[in-house]
Design goal:
By secondary structure, this protein is α/β, with parallel strands linked by helices. The protein has 21 helices and 16 strands. It has 2 domains: 252 residues, Glycoside hydrolase, family 3, N-terminal domain (TIM Barrel, Alpha-Beta Barrel); 150 residues, Glycoside hydrolase family 3 C-terminal domain (Rossmann fold). The strands form 3 sheets. It has an 8-stranded parallel β-sheet with strand order 9-7-5-4-3-2-1-10. The radius of gyration is 25 Å and the shape is globular.
Length: 574
């Protein structure tokens, strides 16, 4: 036995030494490329590498007017990358290839694909929201989700994911985070965040924690104005920072700073994105994070209302940011940072630190060897059936039954035929409820549907209320979409009043299914039958219908607390 073991041990040691040597060689080659490239850059080119602006994925002729500004930003300004918005998968693949062809140094292409490409595009695997994934209860599901999202990103030319969201949503009135968070338990949020980071990085993309130091405990949307977190140092450390600490230890690539103030920690109202007391002192020094620090968009109201364009870029760099995201005027931002260096306010060596981090990340992504994608493979790699099935399974496990006092769930087909289904859409968005009706009618062809939205008149509300009173059972499906700049996640007052009037008429026989904001029940706490889906998208609508008719069980557990009503972990399993 010893004679057999010895060759195996020697082989294992030799194999490990070979891997170590290959790793050392790659690291050495990467460091050499970074230093050689850094030395080749002028001051303005270094600053350009630290800037990122938006990039439309809509079709554009490469020689046409719509692509001309992108060409100028690559060839004249030497920007380090772009953030993708909108478009279509095949178009984006063609556009990113052309942009990479024009660039002296490979480009980053980032994206806010928190729940996949579908967050911006019409194609891609349709995942539910982070809160929905957490309600389903399996961190390995978000690990797989991270891998799928990155694989689809790389197929279209994107390489840097601005996710996962590491915010602890402990304020039910938060209008900007809400269902983007994994929940209210800092340890659980950290577990899910670290799992997603692992999946994203294994699939070959940069992962980003946001929004540092934590955007959950505020009722102000930073797209509109400056948010404030009331925590002191102890509270911040125990709650907001906990998920960031966990994920930083897991090896995350970047952290996005938020446009919010923490006056009880810093003693001022300077937003974290421009504040060295947070960016440098807490993130760099206390948490020992040595990856890329990026600001949130400098186009947001919290910044533009208080800091001129050039000043915000300079302050971000001075605070410790490596990447300045969406300066309102990128030319002016580059000019302002260059002027700050020339007057000695920022040292060029300080810029070199940031550019090294950015170039090193580009090397790790493999962009120095191949910066292009194969457009012919987009339709093969994006929206694979097995990935769509995985996303549907997670959404189905997320549906959470919180009250069933009237014993109305699940709904039989006979009962559904006597039910009035009412979509109450807070926004004028035709997609809200668009899948609900056809899916229910597949099972109950004569099902009765009506839709109320901001265009509906008082007379229409009155007619539906009268019809509801005559129906044996009513299902109310309020849709509240979380939208940047909207400033609220509440159901509009007139619609909430309508829900309450239906409940007053027949509460036991009225089902309320909240699409989007799970905290909606605070506006009508008397509801006796209440389900939350955590999302407004088709994937949640399909999952709800299956649970409604008993085709899949209600298995979700609430990952947040709904004050005075439900604790974390609530959920009736059938």
């Amino acid at each position: 036995m010893k004679k057999l073991l010895m060759p195996l041990v020697l082989f294992s040691l030799m194999f490990q030494q070979t891997l170590f040597a290959e790793g050392e060689s790659r690291d050495r080659a990467g460091a050499e490329w970074v230093e050689k490239t850094l030395k080749s850059l002028s001051l303005r080119e270094k600053i350009g590498q630290m800037m990122m602006v938006s990039f439309s994925g809509e079709f554009a002729n490469f020689g046409g007017e719509r692509f001309a500004e992108t060409r100028r930003r690559i060839e004249k300004l030497g920007l380090g990358g772009f953030t993708l918005f909108r478009g279509e998968a095949n178009s984006i693949a063609a556009l990113t290839n052309e942009a990479q062809r024009l660039a002296k140094i490979p480009l980053f292409f980032s994206a806010d694909y928190e729940r996949g490409l579908r967050m911006q595009l019409r194609t891609g695997t349709p995942f539910t929201t982070n809160m929905g994934v957490a309600a389903a209860g399996d961190p390995e599901a978000v690990y797989r989700q991270g891998k799928i999202i990155c694989a689809e990103m790389r197929a279209i030319g994107a390489n840097w994911l601005f996710a996962p969201v590491a915010d602890v949503n402990n304020n039910p009135d938060n209008p900007v985070i809400n269902i983007r968070s994994f929940g209210a338990d800092p340890q659980k949020v950290g577990e899910f965040v670290a799992a997603e980071v692992r999946g994203v990085r294994e699939a070959g993309c940069l992962a980003t924690l946001k929004h540092f130091p934590g955007h959950g405990n505020t009722a102000v949307d930073s797209h509109i104005g400056l948010s404030t977190i009331p925590a002191d140092a102890n509270e911040l450390n125990a709650v907001e920072l906990a998920p960031f600490k966990t994920a930083i230890l897991s090896g995350v690539d970047s952290v996005m700073t938020a446009h919010l103030a923490v006056p009880n920690v810093t003693g001022d109202s300077v937003p974290a994105s421009l504040n060295p007391k947070i960016t440098t002192d807490i993130l760099r020094k206390e948490l020992k994070f040595d990856g890329i620090i990026t600001t949130d968009s400098l186009e947001m109201g919290a910044i533009t209302k208080n800091y001129p364009n050039g000043e915000s870029a300079v302050l971000a760099v001075k605070a410790g940011a490596d990447l300045v995201l969406f300066p309102p005027d990128v030319d002016a931002a580059i000019d302002a940072v260059e002027a700050a260096v020339k007057r000695g306010e920022i040292t060029e060596s300080r810029l070199d630190e940031s550019v090294r981090r950015l170039l090193s990340a580009k090397y790790r992504l493999g962009l120095t060897k191949n910066r292009f994608v194969d457009p012919a493979r987009v339709n093969e790699l994006v929206e694979k059936p097995e990935n769509v099935a995985e996303a549907n399974r997670v959404a189905e496990r997320s549906i959470t039954l919180l009250r069933n006092d009237g014993r109305v769930f699940p709904l039989s087909k006979d009962a559904a035929a006597k039910t009035l289904f009412v979509v109450v859409a807070a926004d004028d968005d035709a997609q809200e409820g668009a899948s609900l009706a056809p899916e229910i009618r597949k099972r109950v062809p004569n099902a009765r549907f009506v839709r109320l939205d901001p265009r509906s008149t008082p007379d229409e509300y009155a007619r539906v209320l009268d019809d509801a009173g005559k129906s044996e059972t009513v299902l109310l499906a309020p849709f509240v979409k979380r939208t940047a700049g909207k400033g609220t996640v509440a159901l509009p007052e007139n619609q909430a009043a309508f829900v309450k009037r239906v409940l007053a008429a027949k509460n036991d026989r009225t089902m309320v299914v909240a699409f989007g904001n799970p905290y909606m029940i605070r506006q009508f706490p008397e509801a006796k039958n209440y389900v939350v889906t955590y999302a407004v998208e088709d994937v949640a609508q399909l999952a709800l219908v299956k649970a409604l008719f008993g085709e899949t069980p209600f298995r979700g557990k609430l990952p947040i607390e709904i004050p005075d009503l439900f604790r974390v972990g609530a959920g009736i399993a059938d």
